[in-house]
Amino acid sequence: MAFVLKNPPEFTVEINQWTRETDADGAEMAKDIEKLLNNDFYLKTELERMDHVALAVLPASGWTGSSAPYIQTVSVEGAKEDRDARLVSVLADGASLEVQKAYMKAFSLISSGTGVLGEGVATFKVYKKPTTDITVGLLGVM
Length: 142
Description:
Radius of gyration: 22 Å
Low-confidence stretches: none
Oligomer: single chain
Strand order of the largest sheet: 1-6-3
Number of strands: 6
């Protein structure tokens, strides 16, 4: 008998308890072992997702609206409507002071707004438009 890893992985909390007094039935016990294997696969997948940073490129010219909130929807590989992500800085190590200042100004405007994931996209709303292009990271998207 081969165990089946479900795709997408599924997590369950319903596992039979097998003891010495339980009638041994290999086929029934295998179902529980398969559930445990799928739980491990699910948890491993979730941990990998939580460590993954997807990039969102927000050009200064991409904001729409004539008044606040200004909106921009961009493609984000792996984004799912039912997921939450954390906004993180992806400012390059060793960036010049000028680049750091421009990045942090734009990043603060984005982080003070809102962001929502959709299928393959992220939609950001801000109350003041960034004047520079910026790439931000979304932690937990995959």
